[in-house]
Amino acid sequence: MNSDSRRTSGRDGVEVVDHRVAVCRDAAKGQCSRSTCKYYHIPIALPPAPVMAALASYLQ
């Protein structure tokens, strides 16, 4: 692999290869325990608390 095509982002340490990143599968499951992870952690936006509460009561 060409060294110019692979680099590490200085901002968050996520490894970038050919302008692409790999998603952390552990983080997607809420289970990443790495102190510094080279994979991208997708920010997950949860619905507001009232919506979550309504959903939880509906599912019970």
Automatic annotation (TrEMBL):
Name of the protein: C3H1-type domain-containing protein
Alphabetized Pfam families for the sequence: zf-CCCH_10 (PF22628)
Domain of life of the source: Eukaryota
Signal peptide boundaries: none
Domain C3H1-type residue range list: 18-44
Highest classification ranks of the organism: Eukaryota, Metazoa, Ecdysozoa, Arthropoda, Hexapoda
Annotated family: Belongs to the muscleblind family.
Native source organism of the sequence: Asbolus verrucosus (Desert ironclad beetle)
GO MF assignments: zinc ion binding
C3H1-type zinc finger locations on the chain: 18-44
Keywords: Metal-binding, Zinc, Zinc-finger
PROSITE patterns: ZF_C3H1
